[in-house]
Amino acid sequence: MNLARQLEGKTCLVTGGAGSIGRATARLFVEQGARVMLVDLDAAALQRAAEPLDPECSAWMTADVSDEASVRDAIAATAQRWGGIDVLFSNAGNFGVVRPIAEYPLDVFEAVHAVHVRGAFLMCKHAVPKMNDGGSIVINSSVAGTRGDPGVYAYITAKHAQVGLMRCLAKELAPRRIRVNTIHPGPIANCFQLAVEQDLQGIIGRDGTQFFDEIIPMGRHGTPDEIAHSVLYLASAQSSFTTGTMLAVDGGMSA
């Protein structure tokens, strides 16, 4: 076995493929021998994400993970192009806002849950019948899925819900040797986190990035590449006896 190519010949589907973690993970998967389908809402952003990748082992398509027909089409396109799916990285996400409970907008709450909870559910619902035995599902939760903070009602409850979905799936799919785990990144140096910090800054009256650095024991934000390598561990045979787990990659923030 060539340990330098941990996903040789595997077919992988990455949602949120135009974001920083999706791009980093797709790039690493291709380097490790995988064929990768990138899925996101923005066609132009997806095209930019796919440009550095070998076109022989990568493709992209737009899809809304909260829409069942769109999810079904993405799964079918992936399976038709390369056969059965080996790895699903459910990574699509949105944040919402930080507000007191009495002021939290219902439409924002529902929009966040539509992507994180319904989206992850639909991706798994339609991917599982197309998955090869011995595969892996990785759901990108968050350090927010391990804690509670005032005002983060949509995002935190959605991230906790993903853990419940993962645990149910892990038990159902264990007889097929399909491993199901959640990964829990801490604050990452990317545009998604910066938007969170700018929203928070107006509430706490101080620099949001500095605030997070101070509460992370390692004293810094993580990088998309660091998360990608942890996803690779869960996607590959290195984690062959790991299922139903929450992998924290958060610089000690959830400790």
Structure in words:
- There is one protein chain.
- The chain has 255 residues and is an alpha/beta fold.
- It has one domain (11-188, 223-249): NAD(P)-binding Rossmann-like Domain (Rossmann fold).
- 44% of the residues lie in helices and 17% in strands.
- It contains eight helices and seven strands.
- It has helices spanning 20-31, 43-50, 68-82, 106-127, 153-173, 191-204, 208-215, 224-235; strands spanning 11-15, 35-40, 58-62, 85-90, 131-140, 179-185, 246-249.
- Strands 3-2-1-4-5-6-7 form a seven-stranded parallel sheet, with helices on both faces.
- β5 (131-140), α5 and β6 form a beta-alpha-beta unit.
- α1 (20-31) packs across α8 (224-235), α3 packs parallel to α4 (106-127) and α4 (106-127) packs parallel to α5.
- The longest helix has 22 residues, at 106-127.
- The model has no long low-confidence stretch (mean pLDDT 95).
Mean pLDDT: 95
The radius of gyration over CA amounts to: 17 Å
Distance between the termini: 36 Å
Number of helices: 8
Low-confidence stretches: none
Rough outline: globular
Helix content: 40-55%
Q: Give the oligomeric state of the chains in this entry, treating copies of one chain as homo and distinct chains as hetero.
A: single chain
CATH class: Alpha Beta
What structural class is derived from the secondary structure elements?
Answer: alpha/beta
Question: In total, how many beta strands?
Answer: 7
Strand content: 15-25%
Assigned CATH architecture: 3-Layer(aba) Sandwich
CATH fold field value: Rossmann fold
Element order, helices and strands? Answer: EHEHEHEHEHEHHHE
